[in-house]
Amino acid sequence: MRIGHKKILLKEVATFLNGYAFKPSDWSKEGLPIIRIQNLTGTNRDFNYYNGNYNKKYLIENGDILISWSASLGIFLWENMTGILNQHIFKVIFDKNIEIDKIYFLHCMKFLIKKIEKNIHGSTMKHITRPEFEKIKFPIYEIDIQRKISKKLIFITKIIENNKKLLNKMEELSKSLFTKYSKNKKVVNLELEEICEFIKDGTHQTPTYVNTNENGYKFLSSKDVSKGIINWDNTKYISEELHKELYKKIAPKKNDILLAKNGTTGIAALVDKEEIFDIYVSLAILRLKKEYNPKYILEGINSIETNQQFKKSLKGIGVPNLHLKEIKKVKIPIPPIELQNKFAERVEKIEKLKFEIEKSIEEAQKLYNSLISKYFDN
């Protein structure tokens, strides 16, 4: 069978058994764990239990494939204890007169679900009906080809997973380094206003944006600062006239620190290159005095301890925000400059390793996307 030669309806591939409609009154503190959507997505890992009579068809064993079809669309390989299935989740039963490799099915359905997510009912509560679901066209190959495809995809996903684990270890290493240096005997706790030349926020007026091809200037808000980095790729732009007006008040430069006042509240990022841009009120800009290392201070601002200080200072209902006066009073443990510099050197080495790992993940992901498009979208 050549690639893409045959597609069949999903109902011809397997039977999709919907779970049992448990009521809260059925829940118990012992018995079989009830497998709900939140147990699959990880939003809540705690189980409710059922200790009554049940039909064995609803039992889920380690290795079963499950598909959530309401509220959250997704496919999952169950790798856990025996449980009993709740409603709004299909148990996939391969009982048709056709050979299917389970891992091939898993990867193919992940791809197909992403495609149908764009055309389903409900703007916030995603939902697909059984008739619609069973009419999805599924690309089928001879079993030996399915297994070859599975082998390739397993290999690539393992590379991605292992590199992501390594990336997490690198991030934990940075945090542990900060803990080590911030606990030095020579450390003093200083307020941010003591270590900064100034702490200001951006314009309080919502600007009129322009297209990038209109000689616009980059305009950053809190949405452009996340996970300790600035995302320069999706920024909005303002006119040259407005830029000149704003730039007279605040002219950001390399090694300034941008701090999210709302949105991703309390997250900071370093301006790591020479770039002309302006900022919105949702960002504060911190310009450090020369005797402080920006990379060390950045790690201090993004630390758990500082984050807790920020949380205590949040103001407002609905969209809470940080006020400048609270930001200025937040304290950071400051070691001597020699230790700050040593910390920065080590973090720089870690950042280089992280960059290489991220690059490897990106390349592996591109290869994975290319293969699933080749095998499943033709």
UniProtKB/TrEMBL annotation:
Class of this enzyme: hydrolase
GO biological process terms, semicolon-separated: DNA restriction-modification system
Domain of life: Bacteria
Pfam families membership: Methylase_S
Organism: Fusobacterium polymorphum ATCC 10953
Family recorded in the similarity comment: Belongs to the type-I restriction system S methylase family.
Source species taxonomy: Bacteria, Fusobacteriati, Fusobacteriota, Fusobacteriia, Fusobacteriales
Name of the encoding gene: hsdR1
UniProt keyword terms in alphabetical order: DNA-binding, Hydrolase, Restriction system
GO function term, MF aspect, one: type I site-specific deoxyribonuclease activity
EC identifiers of the protein: 3.1.21.3
Keyword Hydrolase carried by entry: yes
Residues in Type I restriction modification DNA specificity domain copies: 9-171, 185-363
Keyword Electron transport: no
Record SUPFAM superfamilies: DNA methylase specificity domain (SSF116734)
Name of the protein this chain belongs to: Type I site-specific deoxyribonuclease restriction subunit
